[in-house]
Amino acid sequence: xxxxxxxxxxxxxxxxxxxxxxxxxxxxxxxxxxxxxxxxxxxxxxxxxxxxxxxxxxxxxxxxxxxxxxxxxxxxxxxxxxxxxxxxxxxxxxxxxxxxxxxxxxxxxxxxxx
Length: 114
What we know:
Blueprint: E1 2-7, E2 10-13, E3 18-26, E4 33-39, E5 46-52, E6 57-59, E7 67-72, E8 77-82, E9 91-98, E10 102-104, E11 108-113
Parallel strand pairs: 2-11
Antiparallel strand pairs: 1-3, 3-8, 4-5, 4-9, 5-6, 7-8, 9-10, 9-11
């Protein structure tokens, strides 16, 4: 089992920045890829960014150029730095870990005001 705990969400004005954190614990040796997804009200959950165990990063088009995913292996933590936030980025952001199974965190709310 893997446990994921997100933090760092909040309310920010358009153009502002936030950094989300996701701390992993448990059977972390089984994790290959970690990433972030988001779900806005009345919309499906969508992919945002991912980082592999080798450090390769992937981004959704909506995140390219504004968001940066990184990881600190010593702390078993993945980060999502979000810059130039827009109101359409408002959503609950979920951390995801893929390995022997698919794991999700509880989510953290990000609200961007115009």
